[in-house]
Amino acid sequence: MCRWLAYSGSPLVLEQLLYEPEHSLIVQSLHSQLGAEETNGDGFGIGWYGDQATPAVFRSVEPAWNDRNLRELSGHITSGILFAHIRASTGSPVQQTNCHPFRHGRWLWMHNGFIGGFDQVKRDLVLEVDPLLYPGIEGTTDTEVFFHLALTYGLEDDPPAAVARAVGFIESTGRRQGVACPIQMTVATTDGDSFYGFRYSSEGASRSLFHSTDVTTLRALYPDNALLRKMSDDARLVVSEPLGSLQGAWREVPESTCVVIRKGEEQLVPFAPVAPAASA
Amino acid sequence: MCRWLAYSGSPLVLEQLLYEPEHSLIVQSLHSQLGAEETNGDGFGIGWYGDQATPAVFRSVEPAWNDRNLRELSGHITSGILFAHIRASTGSPVQQTNCHPFRHGRWLWMHNGFIGGFDQVKRDLVLEVDPLLYPGIEGTTDTEVFFHLALTYGLEDDPPAAVARAVGFIESTGRRQGVACPIQMTVATTDGDSFYGFRYSSEGASRSLFHSTDVTTLRALYPDNALLRKMSDDARLVVSEPLGSLQGAWREVPESTCVVIRKGEEQLVPFAPVAPAASA
Amino acid sequence: MCRWLAYSGSPLVLEQLLYEPEHSLIVQSLHSQLGAEETNGDGFGIGWYGDQATPAVFRSVEPAWNDRNLRELSGHITSGILFAHIRASTGSPVQQTNCHPFRHGRWLWMHNGFIGGFDQVKRDLVLEVDPLLYPGIEGTTDTEVFFHLALTYGLEDDPPAAVARAVGFIESTGRRQGVACPIQMTVATTDGDSFYGFRYSSEGASRSLFHSTDVTTLRALYPDNALLRKMSDDARLVVSEPLGSLQGAWREVPESTCVVIRKGEEQLVPFAPVAPAASA
Amino acid sequence: MCRWLAYSGSPLVLEQLLYEPEHSLIVQSLHSQLGAEETNGDGFGIGWYGDQATPAVFRSVEPAWNDRNLRELSGHITSGILFAHIRASTGSPVQQTNCHPFRHGRWLWMHNGFIGGFDQVKRDLVLEVDPLLYPGIEGTTDTEVFFHLALTYGLEDDPPAAVARAVGFIESTGRRQGVACPIQMTVATTDGDSFYGFRYSSEGASRSLFHSTDVTTLRALYPDNALLRKMSDDARLVVSEPLGSLQGAWREVPESTCVVIRKGEEQLVPFAPVAPAASA
Predict the structure, then answer these.
(1) Which of D15, D39, D99, D272 could form a disulfide with D74 if both were Cys (CB 3.0 to 4.6 A apart)?
(2) Of C13, C56, C72, the CB nearest to A76
(3) ipTM of the complex, rounded to two decimals
(4) C56, C57, C76: residue with CB nearest A50
């Protein structure tokens, strides 16, 4: 599996999010506590929004814990929206084009989980991708195919609906081929304005996902916390596992739920796949 | 484009083939003379046959000229059949899964050239690949898709016929989509016993390809040549460009030709694509 | 050898300097026209100043021409001071710690050239480095040892004097050991405020070095040039070879000269090594 | 720290040693049980002897667990003497020149442990290296400096004596600079004929080290064990931690001991550093 972190709020130097927390994503790359694998050393990636039309992406096949360029860039880049991902490959090669986050136009996408029986279902899934989007698939991960299915179903217009259809299609394809658990997922996607996080699995036992609680309240409780002092009131984090042990700072995202964050407002809405028949 | 070398004959330490010739493949990685590009620095790969059931493959994204592992392995591995390839990407990412040679069972495959308009035709080509072979595509090159088409059409049973059908399919697909030159190719494939080299292009102006002439004759002409003395009488080289300036050592493979080498015997036969209709 | 570029002026998106010019540094990585080697594919590095105390450095062992992270970062990072370097190794391994620019505190340092007979003189040069600075040597290049000699001699206080002493020491050490050409150099160094470029060689036949001419004049001559329109009046470039064929845009830095750029003012002063005896 | 394995005996396909054991070195790269660190993902290296004058070395900065070239080579290379090492950096950069084993002529050298306060003592240690050997130092690890000290003191003639002097020098240098634990080491070295393993630390609490017990006895006990059936009677393994849970197969090397293996005979002799004064 993998671990990821999504941040939106006041602009921070990236190292404040990636390296400084007690149980930071970099620490998790060697010692994840809640992941399916303790080590997430099969590459990493970060995506952030600056003053250009599209977000920047930096991805590498090295383990995050000792990557000097990641350390360096994190100390010199400032952004108010960050996606960060560390990878534990479930089989596909360790190469840059298989590192998250993936990008399409203004959209970023990252994932922890897997499409069950991917080798069996890959061809059917790829065939469903809009032929115009198909050449944009650069790597060989299940995640990138999943992203392109969501794009095919209208991710840029209505993300929850598009993801629901993509998951419905993946589940029906898998089940037709006898796959017991067609999908296991915690997905994050954003266009730089709105953030969407999804926690779901066909078996109803999804990988962990947490969101941060209200910064104002936390800051009152922990006036000495360095990171909290730098975060704006509307700042939000969604993470695979908590970045520290601060009591009250983290709340688990419930099973089969979509978290939507827009202008500092957070909403949790139920998430259910939409099967192809229903969507036809 | 790329440059490649195929050798069969008496077992040699690989460096004798890869580093010692005056205009070796390693020299060509920096200074190709006949290639579409002078520099072939986007990764490399070698494949060789030893005492295992399948050939070994070593591939890397580094330029060949300064790769220490290639230098090291070449000085310590001995083989009687070698495929070697240096890459100049025509667009697909520089990653190990995009480096030649590609392998399927006992078969190796490498290529210099391109499928024209690959982004446009890729989906149709991939759909034609046998669904059982489809999951074996690990990278994103035109070459690997071409290999899987040839496998689909029976490469393991009748290589020239399978390649003819694959090229026919690629050409008809490209032409249907308005691609002017659907294929430009010099392809090498082997199962460790027989070798097949193909020189062809839709426009009838193919990349360069040469085969070595009779070793016995050459050895008589150049009794001091170190490499010739180590090569057996039945040794053969097929290369993108000559490895040196020895008069009489190299003969150009004609346009639209397939070179077959089996038990030291060499045959040049005409090659023509077989269009899908004709093969149906 | 190598090629480098140093820029100071109005903040630019790095790609405007690195990719957009007709004969950009990225083009030079494959096709240098004035370098000792046409190909500069043994890694690269960039250094730039932002709002942190020290400059950022991004270095990689991949060839620059196909590096996706360099492309990505160049499109999203803006800076008013940039150092960029592409490497053609003269023997030391291709590894990140051997890529330029090197950094010490606020100082960056990059180099095109070599210390003659480096294997013979390295030990004596390293012994001369201030023992407190010695642990800061992370790689194995002549350039990094040269940088640490200059730091030892007071680079941070008086760069031209420190470099003169460093070169003097390198020359006297080399000559004592029978090295014909102890140094061949075009060096760039900066603390983010002042820039210093040096062109010198023991044999009096130094690698090429150019500086840009007055932007205001050029802009009047070429009102349609995109890069010139974005550059401030005080912008300056110092480069191993011109970035394009614009008549009047480039002036060669004379032999044995130091270029100093401070607050948009440019000064050319003679440069001569100071031998150890003279400095004692 | 790191983990390593040294094998001598009948020629084996390397994967039989590296991948097939229950708790193989590859498993240890993700899940070491006795190491200072559970993860050893900062590069790896293997060295083996074939029919050339010097051993071959293959080293890479990727984690061993997912490295396709290591998997590939291990399945196709056969040798009767293998050194294998997985690295967990204690600070020096992750680069090929810092990966073990190191080589000099016919000698290989690998290490698990550290030189205490290396930044403080490095300069003094490097100065002690024979100036003729000095240019052979290619990386920046404590291990490579240690190797060159041992070479300086005559490793090629009398390995135990040379290592004793090297350790004595490291300890006296460290103590003079106030380093509490100047050395922590389990070192392996061989010339392809004789093998030497050392377990020692200044604090008398050394990293784990084990040697295999008599193959004939073990084979009688475990007639179904695949690896044992392929190993000759004189085969020997020395490892950082046992490769499996076979009762009776492994014996701990005592503290302050040197294991010598020559022609299938194994000897354990006490090891004590020789301080510079004593050796003068």
Answers:
(1) D15
(2) C56
(3) 0.94
(4) C76
